[in-house]
Structure formats: C-alpha cells, structure tokens
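Example (one chain per record):
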Amino acid sequence: MIASPTVHPSAFSVSCHADPIVELKQDDECLSSLRAGFAVPSLRLWIAAPSVIVSKRESELPHFERAASVLQEKGWPIFVRRTGGTICPLGPGILNLSYVSRFKFADGFSAAASYRWFCRKLLQSVSNCGVAGTIGSVPGCYCDGGYNIVVSGKKLIGTSQRCVPISRDYKDVALLMHATILVSADKERLCHIVNRFNALTEQEAVASENALINLTEIDSSGGKGDIKDTLMDALVEAFHPGVNTWEYPVSNC
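Predicted structure:
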C-alpha cells in the first residue's frame, strides 16, 4: 500500500519551449537530491521544443545512430531518458508534468500502487476540465502501457516513473513521476516520427493517430488557450495545493 506524500511540493516551475535535455537532467537531479536529503519535493510543468525521448533499451537497438541522425535532420533530436517506456515525441501542443516526491510503502515499493496514485491525480485534473477518463492500455498508440489516461478508447496522457530507494527495504523511496499530455498536438506528425524511428531500428510497432486524442478535441468550453490554462491550474491544484498559477507565465506556453 502506498501512502500519499506527507509534504506538498515546495518547489514549482513552468517552462515554455524548453530544452528537453535540460528538463530530463533536472528530473534526474531533483530525484537524486531528494534521495540524498538535499532537496524538497518539486512539481514542474514544461513544454519542450520538438524532440524525441527514448529509453536506454531503444538506444541500444540496431541502427539507432542512423535513426537518430535522420530524425535530427528532420528537426527532431533524440534524447535518452532514465524512466521506462518506449519512444515518445515531445513538442508544441504537448504538456509535460514532472513530479518528484518521497513516498512510504507499508510492504515495500509497488510500481502498480504508485502508478494508480499518480493516475488518480491526473484523472482528477482532467475531470476539472469536464473530461471523464479511465486508466488502461490503448493498442496502436506510441509508448503504450497499462497506465495511460484514456478517453473514448484513445490515449490522452502517457505516464512513466523512476524509483530510487531511501531505505534498504524499499519502504521509503523517492519517486520521479512523468506525464505527457496531448493538448493540441499534431498527432499525424507525431506518429510519422515514431514510425520512421521504428522502421529505421527494425521494429514492427506502428503508431496510429486514431489511437490518440487531444484535450482540445473533447473540450467544448472554450478555445485552445483556455483549456490548456484550465488544465494547468487543475494539475497544480491536484499536485501542489495552494500555488497561484497566475504568478507564472502559463499563458505564454
């Protein structure tokens, strides 16, 4: 069983048009510092420049260097992340959430329990935007897993995490939880990039834009900017109660 963090994040930031390698490095640094007792829990919302993140396993695939070179030429540089999952494109219209905190488990770390906790927070956030979602897998989407946020059978949010122990029995751990949220992305372009990488690295997986859904496709309350700002407010309220997002330049993202 997982226990909710006893301390809310006291570090919060919003980054627009961010360098993904800087953001991924900050994820790792926040996690390591928290584990060592040198940092406080943190919440970051960021939108990256066009780029692709892959797992360490994918970076060892045949012809990876060739695939990375081709995507770089197309304006989509590849970076290796330390969380799990498979290839995931980032860029305009995709909101990223990085949450780092300390958790305690009665019987030792459980990935399933921590994912469920994380997904409940995400579902709470999209519910505040008038969207009803579920948790599950979506065949045909890129970076599929059992803990997507799904709307109308399509993937709206993908999740990943990384755990480092604080106690030897893994009852006390530091967790990095990451979410990629499709707000107003070019789904066809994203799937083209993923499929090109998979073909170049001799993988059979094919991503379909029909397996993805943007928040703007299911929102009827206003324009693109309105729903994104509403979502950001909802995410902050769910993960970091008490912060006023108007103090940050979210409308410029």
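Caption: The chain has a mean pLDDT of 89.
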